């Protein structure tokens, strides 16, 4: 029986590793579709940002209560899962609480810490579920935000419920195990000295009338549920917005270090303008290079960092809640821009899997996922960039799509075209000749 459990356990581990490797490979390939961009300069500054924003959750702390709750769920979940190391080794070697005999008082201390954190995670997940579905925090509601369709809401509910179930299984497993030790049943008797644990001891009375056999079944079931649940969770993450648990770290490390508000120039255009104004002289030996596409029409025209941003988005909606265009009822939602970019990447991946790596579904990010009306509503205020807790930059994608629409398709709103021709002719957005620029001064000191 024990050997069968070991075989099943190793098979579950191997299957998870196989699926995970495939999923990670696909996501990596999807991100690599993007154009190259160097984000490896100033490594110390980058490390510092990652430690503050991803580890320290600095931007979450603008709302201290929510920030602290998020911190509990994040730290708690990660630390509680350290216990998985022992569970995995027990599963492979057919042992029970492998570390307990060698670690003395450290063992109960660790399990007690895990239990306190597990309870914290349990409570915070319940509060988050209530915030989403009972008190209805506006930024999660589909009535106001059309991107919050059935799947993002189900995804959030599934993960929170799943974490509650995992923590419940962990505490119930410890409680049933403690009762078995107390009763001195079979091999459980060998660990009698470990004692009871700080939270699960309150669940032990629930098992008072259970037979030894029923208790062993419960202990085994909770053990299996806990570990299989974690393996399933690891795979599910790669399909979910919760991938940010992992990607928040590289994504913040590769943050944009430019000052906010500095918009990336297009080198080909800058050069043309400088040549036209005589600021730069043409190199007679230079072979003319055909300029590539201006702006972005699809994900392949964006940078790899834009695409990593899309996979790192937590769908929290803080960007959308701060977006003046969205607040004033325009169609634009920066959260939707990130979700659409990710959906596009996922659709491309699906195409690869079903029809081979060269498959082209004929769709494009601009047009099939994001409309001109959305991108034209952006004021480039950078509020979304400022608010994002994992340093995502939706504005970069919006600007690239807008550049394509205007420079490749010559489709800008009429009022913008007037502004463009003013800039071209008057070197200012207004309809005044440069010669009249100081007319206002004529009225001064008269
Ligand atoms: S930069 Fe654009 S998308 Fe971002 S908050 Fe401002 S208006 Fe909204
Ligand atoms: S872009 Fe950032 S702020 Fe906006 S939904 Fe995604 S994670 Fe949240």
Automatic annotation (TrEMBL):
GO terms for cellular component: plasma membrane. InterPro entries: 4Fe4S_Fe-S-bd, 4Fe4S_Fe_S_CS, HdrC_iron-sulfur_subunit, Helical_ferredxn, NarG-like_sf. Residues 304-335, 368-398 form the 4Fe-4S ferredoxin-type domain. PROSITE patterns: 4FE4S_FER_1, 4FE4S_FER_2. The keyword Iron applies. GO terms for molecular function: 4 iron, 4 sulfur cluster binding; metal ion binding; oxidoreductase activity. Keywords: 4Fe-4S, Iron, Iron-sulfur, Membrane, Metal-binding, Oxidoreductase, Transmembrane, Transmembrane helix. The keyword Oxidoreductase applies. This is 4Fe-4S dicluster domain-containing protein. It comes from the Bacteria. PANTHER family: IRON-SULFUR-BINDING OXIDOREDUCTASE FADF-RELATED, IRON-SULFUR-BINDING OXIDOREDUCTASE FADF-RELATED-RELATED. It comes from Larkinella terrae. The chain crosses the membrane at residues 6-25, 68-89, 109-134, 155-173, 221-239.
